[in-house]
Design goal:
about 375 residues, alpha+beta, five-stranded antiparallel sheet, four-stranded antiparallel sheet, 8 helices, about 20% strand
């Protein structure tokens, strides 16, 4: 499947080294202001080549709006967006066309389709996430204008390094989306050493959505936390998702974990702003764990297409830590889920209105 969402539906297409990548957005309400320049900031935040700590592929990432927008506003019809690939270097992959890279989708794509595009991973490349970020530009704007919802994320861990402090204002001021400005020099040295070693490392991204009203989500199969988990797990290299305290709840007691309620609001937010699959009105907090990059110049054992042992060395331009530029991608998936859930809630429960009592978000905010 290449389509995501129920009412707000996003279909992406294209390969890493094909002529272009794109998406079709269906179900977007009319009247949302959209212009090509609106996509520039978030696509730049996601882009490779932003610093020496990411792949040095430099794509223009200019968005062409092909349909669904007239005189600067969405019409309610399908929105087609296109981004042309301008810096693909397919020759870097000639050596691995007849073998399987360990840790990649080469083998599984071959088993599923009997044919694969080896250039940069083809459809399995993180290049595809460009269009998720583009689609989420519209979702973020609609959520902000209709409900005052703000979606933002940060790098919460890279390898064994975690933030010692936290300041949202620091996040956009460095290439790591790191919330402690005092650690940026340390991270620069850490990444330089990692890159020189030829190895890679994993990362954790946390996304926080402020202003989400209570009531979004479904009680069973359309749970807000379930769909957020599925959305984040659909991102390349994600191997785990946590909502709220996540796996930390294993060692908690019920008296500690339950988010007590007072007249002043919730006293904590261990549940991540979701109870019974439905938003509480608190911050929605989710995290994603990214595996270490598998494209390495260090040799690894594998097999070729005939089943013979080979040694694989991946050349080309690759990220020593994919999590360094994954924050906008995680934000995008959260925003897309929230917009879809908001439209579904409005369709079924739009006549319910405000229900008393409306509990304040209270404590546990980031």
């Amino acid at each position: 499947m290449n389509t995501f969402g129920q009412l707000f539906r996003v279909t992406t297409f294209g390969e890493s080294h094909g002529p272009a990548i794109g998406c079709v957005i269906d179900g977007c309400p009319p009247g949302v202001a959209v212009a090509p320049d609106d996509f520039r900031d978030d696509l730049a935040r996601r882009a490779t080549g932003r610093s020496r700590h990411t792949s040095q592929r430099h794509e223009a990432d200019e968005v062409e709006i092909l349909s669904g927008v007239y005189e600067g506003r969405t019409t309610g019809t399908p929105i087609a967006l296109l981004v042309r690939n301008t810096d693909a270097r397919s020759k870097d992959y000639e050596a691995i066309t007849q073998s399987f890279r360990p840790g990649h989708a080469d083998y599984t794509y071959w088993q599923k389709y009997g044919h694969r595009d080896p250039r940069g991973g083809g459809r399995s490349s993180a290049r595809e996430t460009t269009m998720r970020v583009a689609a989420a530009v519209i979702a973020k704007r609609w959520l902000r204008e209709k409900f005052g919802v703000r979606v933002r994320g940060h790098l919460a861990q890279i390898g064994e390094v975690a933030p010692r402090g936290f300041d949202w204002n620091a996040v956009e001021g460095n290439p790591f989306f790191w919330p402690d400005a005092g650690q940026v020099v340390e991270l620069e040295a850490y990444m330089d050493a990692l890159r020189k070693s030829g190895d890679s490392v994993g990362a954790r991204i946390t996304v926080v959505a402020d202003g989400v009203p209570p009531g979004w989500g479904e009680p069973i199969y359309g749970k807000l936390d379930g769909e957020l988990a599925a959305a984040l797990m659909s991102i390349n290299a994600v191997k785990g998702v946590e909502v709220g305290d996540g796996f930390g709840v294993v060692s908690q007691r019920g008296t500690q974990h339950r988010d007590e309620i007072t007249e002043s609001g919730f006293l904590s937010n261990h549940a991540g702003g979701i109870l019974g699959g439905i938003s509480t009105g608190q911050q929605v907090v989710v995290s994603a764990a990214f595996k270490p990059t598998s494209s390495l110049r260090l040799p690894a054992r594998s097999l070729d297409l005939d089943g013979h042992p080979v040694e694989v060395v991946t050349t080309g331009r690759h990220d020593p830590c994919v999590g360094v530029r994954a924050t906008p991608i995680c934000e995008a998936m959260v925003a897309l889920v929230l917009m879809d859930q908001a439209l579904r809630h409005r369709a079924q429960c739009g006549d319910v209105g405000d229900v008393s009592p409306r509990i304040a978000p209270g404590a546990g905010k980031r």
